[in-house]
Amino acid sequence: MNRILEVRNLKKxxxxxxxxxxxxxxxxxxxxxxxxxxxxxGAGKSTLLRCxxxxxNPTGGRVFIEGEEITGARAAKVRSLRxxxxxxxxxxxxVGRLTVMQNVMHGRLGYMGVMDGVLGRYSEEDKQRAAAILxxxxxxxxxxxxxxxxxxxxxxxxxxxxxLMQEPSLLLxxxxxxxxxxxxxxxxxxxxxxxxxxxxxxxxxxxxxxDAALKYxxxxxxxxxxxxxxxxxxxxxxxxxxxxIYNRPMTQLMIGGERIx
Length: 261
Fold this sequence. Notes:
single chain, alpha/beta, Rossmann fold, 2 domains, 6-stranded mixed β-sheet, 4-stranded antiparallel β-sheet, 9 helices, 12 strands, globular
């Protein structure tokens, strides 16, 4: 199995603050592995993902994508490495006035020249592949609908398809179901899990929902106060460890829509 991601002693301190957002974060992710990152608000989950693909520059530490270092890399190298990293955002980051197909095709921009990208001169092969993935994800009837007309769950699926058009080896998902109803959240999480398994894509998903992490991810990383406090299989995540991650007793935590205790 190939190592897709290696994070070594990663640290980030934002300007104007003394407390690190993340500190001494070290882990690896293998090909096809699905990793759920859980922890309370402010634990550093989103900062971690943004440091991995250099949306945020870390203060210290190193990140390697398929053996190539992205931390400290020059702009051209960062752009090249980002082709391998798909990103799915909580609020979709789609252009609402553009069609579903136009938004999805933006996933190919990293492989195109500037003028071809500006003029939307996508290859017929890319168009056909986009159409096929949209059909596979239940969006075959929405090719020419404006993205702004879709439901939240549909928009999130469009964001996932756009990321897949990059042909990534690593998929980063930052709270992809935070604003979705339970039915839509289930569809999105099943889609992420199944696609990553079938395509052997390594995947990291930030989640507030512990039950979703346990159900759909095969490995859990728990973060508290910027540090990793748990890294292991979902089946080994015990109640006492969940309490340690959230620094709260189980009686105050909601898991699966019910208070535990």
